[in-house]
Design a protein that fits this description.
Layout: E1 2-4, E2 9-13, H1 21-29, H2 34-40, H3 45-49, H4 53-62, E3 64-68, H5 76-96, H6 100-110, E4 113-122, E5 125-129, E6 139-148, H7 150-157, H8 164-177, E7 182-191, H9 205-209, E8 211-221, E9 224-232, H10 238-250, E10 255-260, E11 270-272, E12 275-278, H11 289-302
Parallel strand pairs: 9-10, 10-12
Antiparallel strand pairs: 1-2, 2-7, 3-6, 4-5, 4-6, 7-8, 8-9, 11-12
Length: 303
């Protein structure tokens, strides 16, 4: 849908972030778990696992996570997946201080993994079953194929570019905190096709598609645009700040925040006019509290 911004421009709001409950649960845990932030916000799936080619290819193409726990079982299928997972397990140990089984159990608890197919051994033979074997025969579960949640796949595993999870995290926490305001994700600021009615044939492609800028998160009240938020995982410089300042002034917004996941240009928080720059958010103990305090200050001032 679109929202009027001024006489010449409108905001086209991107697809609503109607996130799965499991993603809401995951991002809520980012607030006080820095290793989890580093894992999901500071990296994409490809960043972490691209060197483990078989594992990366299988997960990214199938949307399935294999979890085989036995090593050197003598079964070709099990040994293939166990070998595939050795490198992945090392990544989990290094980044999260958790082994493969712990990670899978936690993922099931959150809801981002759903057990789909079990690898069972009954009387020395392997079986793939779509659920636990309840027939009473002696068996041993040798592994599980987990279905990965659709949102986790689209937001973190599938993308090759970093930054999407930071946008989701910031949008979700502001949406939850500012219940009295309208918090909008992914707003494209576009020029109206024409301020005077024209026939469809008279509207040029340039008029129809011109985009001035993209706003990661926009906060609105009845009076218009209250604040805008920019989320960047990569480093930002002063030229980025000035560009953001121009967007803020153009939209008549009262304040702005640039949240930087990691970077070298800004070592500490900076304020420029009505803009606050929050660097290295992924590793900071005081984030997201510092973001909430800045936003609350402006909301109280303008209410």
């Amino acid at each position: 849908f679109q929202i009027p911004l001024n006489d010449s421009y409108v905001g086209i709001v991107g697809p609503s972030m109607k996130l799965e409950q499991c993603i809401l649960e995951l991002v809520s845990r980012l607030d006080d778990d820095i290793p989890l932030r580093e894992f999901f916000v500071g990296n994409t799936f490809s960043d972490l696992f691209k060197e483990h080619r078989d594992f990366h290819t299988f997960v990214s193409s199938k949307q399935i996570f294999p979890a085989v726990y036995l090593q050197n079982s003598g079964h070709d299928t099990l040994d293939f997946f166990a070998g595939m997972l050795q490198g992945a397990n090392a990544v989990f140990q290094e980044k999260l201080s958790r082994n493969l089984e712990d990670v899978c159990n936690k993922a099931v608890d959150i809801g981002i993994f759903e057990p789909q197919t079990y690898i069972d051994e009954v009387n020395g033979k392997l079986h793939l079953v779509l659920g636990k074997d309840d027939n009473g025969n002696p068996h041993e579960t040798r592994g599980i194929f987990y279905k990965i949640s659709d949102d986790l796949y689209e937001l973190w595993i599938k993308p090759e570019y970093i930054g999407k999870m930071l946008e989701v995290w910031v949008y979700t926490l502001l949406k939850k905190h500012l219940k009295q305001l309208n918090v909008l994700p992914n707003v494209s600021v576009r020029k109206k096709p024409h301020t005077v009615p024209k026939s469809a044939k008279e509207i040029t492609p340039e008029e129809a598609s011109y985009v001035l800028t993209e706003i990661d998160c926009m906060i609105m009240d009845d009076g218009g645009v209250l604040g805008i938020i920019e989320c960047k995982m990569k480093d930002v410089g002063w030229e980025d700040v000035l560009k953001f300042y121009g967007a803020l002034k153009f939209l008549n917004a009262h304040f702005g925040v640039i949240v930087v996941g990691r970077g070298e240009t800004f070592k500490t928080d900076m304020e420029f006019e009505e803009i606050k720059i929050i660097p290295n958010a992924v590793k900071r103990q005081d984030f997201p509290e510092i973001l909430i305090k800045w936003v609350d200050r402006w909301v109280a001032k303008e209410s």
